[in-house]
Amino acid sequence: MNPIKFDHSKEYDLIALGRAAVDLNANELYRTLEATKTFSKYVGGSPANVAIGMARLNKKTGFIGRVADDQFGNYILQYFARESIDTSQMPVDISGSKTGLTFTEIKSKTESSILMYRKEAVDLKLEAADIKEEYIAKSKILLISGTALAAEPSRQAALLAIEYARANNVRVIFDIDYRPYSWRNDLETSIYYTIAAERSDIIIGSRSEFDYMENIFTTKQTTDAEVAQRWFDYHSKLVVIKHGADGSTAYTAAGESFAVKIFPVELLKSFGGGDAYASAFIYGLLENWDVIDALEFGSASASMLVSAHSCSDAMPTAAAIHEFIKTKKEEYGELVARV
Ligand SMILES: Nc1ncnc2c1ncn2[C@@H]1O[C@H](COP(=O)(O)OP(=O)(O)OP(=O)(O)O)[C@@H](O)[C@H]1O
Ligand SMILES: O=C(O)C[C@@H](O)[C@H](O)C(=O)CO
C-alpha cells in the first residue's frame, strides 16, 4: 500500500529544485582522466537528472534553478524544453557565475569516479526571491536536492521552497544527494540536511548520505530501521536507503519494511543509478503502486543507468523499464530483485 497521499488535482507531478549542470563523460574507457582525450557532453546535476527521468516517464515536471548566462546555460534550457520540462522558474544569472561541470572517469570495469568543477557554481546563486509560492502550490511533489543547501543564497531559497510546499499540501521529497565540493565542513552538512529532512515526507539517500546527516546525533553504527525511525519521529512517512550494488531498503512510518536487490547488468559507471532510481520510484508512488513495486521499478531503472554511458540521455521510458524487468525475470526468475 502506498503510504503517501498526493493531491492529484494539482497540475504538476513533480517540481525539482537545485542544480542543472553539465556532465562530461570520458569516451575512452578504462583510463584515468589524465589519459582521457575526448568526452561526451550531457545535461547533468542530480535534480536535473531526476526531472529528466520524470519527464521521460511522462510525468508533468517543472524545475526551479538558476542557469549561467553562457552556452551551457542555453544548452540546459533548450534540452529541458525538448523534454517538456517547464523552465519558467529558471532565471539566467548574469553575475558571471558558471555552470557546474562533472567529469566522469571510467577507470576500469568496476571503478569510476567523478571530478566536479563547482567554484562559483550558478546553481548556488538561487535566491529566495526566485521562489514563487503559487508555482510550488501547483505541484503534487517538490523534490529538494541536498546540495542546494550547501551554500547561501541557495540554502535559504531551498528552505523557503520547503515551507511553501508544506503550506500548500505539496509532498516534499528530500534527495540527500551529498557532494562534498560545496560544503564548508561535515557539521554544517549535518545541520542543514537535518533541517530539511525534518520537514520532508519522503527521504531518499544512500546509506553513507544518511550517516552524514546523522553526524550531529550519533556516531554509533545504527541499523537502517533505526535510521528510518529517527525521521519518522519528525514528519517523514517513507524512508528509502540505497546500498549500491547491495540493493536498497524502504521503511514506512506504519512499521512496514521492504528490500530489493539490484538487477544484474554489466556495470559501465557507478554513477547515475541514484537519479534513475529516484525518478522511477517516485513514478511508482504517483501511480499508486505498492512500495515494493515502486522499489523494483526504481531498482530496474538504476541498473539500466549504471550500464549506460550517460545519465540524463539514458533515462528510460516506462515501457523500456517494464521490458527490462520482463527480460531479466525471464533470464533470472520472477524474484530476480525481490528478497
Ligand atoms: N553494480 C550495480 N549493478 C546494478 N545496479 C546498481 C549497481 N550499483 C548501483 N546500482 C543501483 O543504483 C542504485 C543507486 O546507487 P547508489 O546506492 O550508489 O546511490 P547513489 O550514490 O545515490 O547513486 P548516484 O551515484 O547516482 O548518486 C542502487 O540502489 C542500485 O539499485
Ligand atoms: O549530480 C551531479 O552533479 C553529477 C551528475 O550529473 C552525474 O550524472 C552523476 O554523478 C549522477 O549521480
UniProtKB/TrEMBL annotation:
Keyword Transmembrane helix: no
Top-level taxon of origin: Bacteria
Pfam families associated with the record: PfkB
GO molecular function, a single term: 5-dehydro-2-deoxygluconokinase activity
The protein, known as: 5-dehydro-2-deoxygluconokinase
Record GO biological process: inositol catabolic process
Domain Carbohydrate kinase PfkB: 14-317
Enzyme Commission number, as recorded: 2.7.1.92
Keywords: ATP-binding, Kinase, Nucleotide-binding, Transferase
Pathway: Polyol metabolism; myo-inositol degradation into acetyl-CoA; acetyl-CoA from myo-inositol: step 5/7
Reaction(s) catalysed (UniProt annotation): 5-dehydro-2-deoxy-D-gluconate + ATP = 6-phospho-5-dehydro-2-deoxy-D-gluconate + ADP + H(+)
NCBIfam families: myo_inos_iolC_N
Family statement drawn from the similarity comment of this UniProt entry: Belongs to the carbohydrate kinase PfkB family.
Primary role: Catalyzes the phosphorylation of 5-dehydro-2-deoxy-D-gluconate (2-deoxy-5-keto-D-gluconate or DKG) to 6-phospho-5-dehydro-2-deoxy-D-gluconate (DKGP).
